[in-house]
From TrEMBL:
Record's keyword terms, sorted: Phenylalanine catabolism, Tyrosine catabolism
Gene Ontology, cellular component aspect: cytoplasm
Superkingdom of the source species: Eukaryota
Organism annotation: Parnassius apollo
UniProt xrefs under InterPro entries: Glutathione-S-Trfase_C-like, Glutathione_S-Trfase, Glutathione_S-Trfase_N, GST_C, GST_Zeta
Keyword 4Fe-4S: no
Reactions mediated catalytically: 4-maleylacetoacetate = 4-fumarylacetoacetate
Protein name: maleylacetoacetate isomerase
Biological processes annotated in GO: glutathione metabolic process; L-phenylalanine catabolic process; L-tyrosine catabolic process
Length: 215
């Protein structure tokens, strides 16, 4: 008898990193179970039990193929290499480089500076928000310029890629948590609104995930 090893995503419904992995799993049609890890109120990620799953005590963590992978971009890359179809990568070296540029702008230049874990290092929530909004705005300016040169129907040409999976969750954070106005960045805003209408992002949207958790 063949025993199928279940794929499990440890995630927090509002986490942008969790959302990009959740979207990647859906895009590649990989059946999985999502186990919620509350990183705000209950702080389950800081327990010794979760440390065994992810030594960094962060989300997401993906249990797949009999092993555990941490860090969202490492997870997406693993999914791409082990399950190349449908692909999340453009078809030329240059376009793949453009995709990685956008991913890095978001994953290295915006997301870490929005991370809720930073808030305790500021005297007030307001000071943390001021700090995060400044650096998010810098990142949005860069994205605006990049997307003007790389985009087609999606962030890079006419094929959905990891760049889109990074863009939507981070802009959702910017708009909902930090009340940022994207109108100053019309190209960024256009793609955000357009991508939100894609079934991929509707199905994996935090509101739907939170609803399922409550039910």
């Amino acid at each position: 008898m063949v025993v199928k090893i279940r794929t499990t995503l440890y995630a927090f419904w509002l986490s942008s990193c969790s959302w990009r992995v959740r979207a990647g799993l859906h895009f590649k049609n990989i059946p999985f179970e999502e186990k919620p890890v509350d990183i705000l109120r209950e702080k389950r990620h800081l327990t010794e039990k979760f440390r065994i799953i992810n030594p960094a005590q962060k989300v997401p963590a993906l249990v797949i193929d009999g092993t555990t992978i941490i860090e969202s971009m490492a997870i997406l890359q693993y999914l791409e290499e082990t399950r190349p179809e449908p692909t999340l990568m453009p078809n030329t070296p240059l376009l793949r480089a453009r995709m990685r540029e956008i991913c890095e702008i978001i994953v290295s230049g915006i997301q870490p500076l929005q991370n809720v874990g930073l808030q305790s290092h500021f005297e007030t929530k307001e000071k943390f928000h001021t700090f995060s909004k400044y650096w998010t705005e810098r990142g949005l300016q860069t994205l605006e310029n990049q997307l003007k040169n790389t985009s087609g129907h999606y962030c890079v040409g006419d094929q959905i890629s990891m760049a889109d999976l990074c863009l939507v969750p981070q802009l959702y954070n910017a708009v909902t948590r930090f009340q940022m106005d994207l109108k100053q960045h019309p190209t960024v805003s256009k793609f955000y609104e357009s991508l939100l209408q894609e079934e991929l992002f509707k199905e994996t949207h935090p509101k739907n995930i939170n609803k399922n958790i409550k039910e």
